[in-house]
């Protein structure tokens, strides 16, 4: 199962990583139904694109706007945390990470954060 959250009018504070809301960014909280329709329409368009052209066009578009490509990131897994350079998105959608040791890890699921110090697994 996959889920997303969009903070419209309020956002949590005091988190490890900052959060914001659309109201904080624009000065106006959009109507929830309008946002839901826009998300559903956009999601459906990308799903149709995937169904018609496979994952390659999704990967290309994602990489074109990816934040932190080539930068240092931290990937938190259930039982370990890895830090290294964000190299790529594999053809199957996995994150490709080069650890400081030079070892390349391919991760299919992790919580990913920008810029970190050293972590277990480096």
Quick overview of this protein structure:
With 122 residues, the protein is α+β, with helices and mostly antiparallel strands. Helices cover 30% and strands 22% of the residues.
What would you note in describing this structure?
- It is a single chain.
- The protein has 122 residues and is α+β, with helices and mostly antiparallel strands.
- Among the domains are: 22-54; 67-114, SH3 type barrels (Roll).
- Helix content is 30%, strand content 22%.
- It is built from three helices and five strands; from the N terminus they run H-H-H-E-E-E-E-E.
- It has a five-stranded antiparallel sheet with strand order 4-3-2-1-5, with no helix packed on it.
- Strand 1 and strand 2 (81-89) form a beta hairpin.
- The longest helix is centred in the middle third of the chain and has 22 residues, at 32-53.
- It is globular, with a radius of gyration of 17 Å.
- Residues 118-122 have low confidence and may be disordered.
Enter the CATH topology name of the domain at 67-114. SH3 type barrels
Categorize the overall geometry. Answer: globular
What is the CATH class designation of the domain at 67-114? Mainly Beta
Mean pLDDT over all positions: 91
Main sheet, how many strands, which sense, barrel? Answer: 5 strands, antiparallel
Strand content: 15-25%
Number of strands: 5
Describe this protein with a few key phrases:
single chain, 122 residues, alpha+beta, SH3 type barrels, five-stranded antiparallel β-sheet, 3 helices, globular
Secondary structure blueprint with pairings:
Elements: H1 22-26, H2 32-53, H3 56-65, E1 72-76, E2 81-89, E3 95-99, E4 104-107, E5 111-114
Antiparallel strand pairs: 1-2, 1-5, 2-3, 3-4
């Amino acid at each position: 199962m996959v889920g997303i959250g969009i903070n419209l009018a309020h956002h949590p504070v005091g988190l490890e990583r900052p959060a914001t809301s659309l109201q904080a960014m624009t000065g106006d909280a959009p109507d929830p139904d309008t946002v839901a329709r826009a998300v559903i329409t956009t999601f459906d368009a990308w799903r149709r694109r995937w169904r018609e052209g496979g994952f390659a066009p999704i990967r290309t578009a994602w990489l074109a706007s990816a934040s932190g490509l080539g930068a240092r990131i931290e990937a938190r897994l259930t039982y370990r945390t890895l830090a290294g350079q964000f190299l790529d998105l594999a053809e199957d959608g996995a994150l490709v990470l080069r650890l400081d040791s030079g070892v390349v890890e391919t991760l299919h699921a992790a919580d990913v954060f920008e810029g970190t110090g050293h972590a277990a697994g480096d």
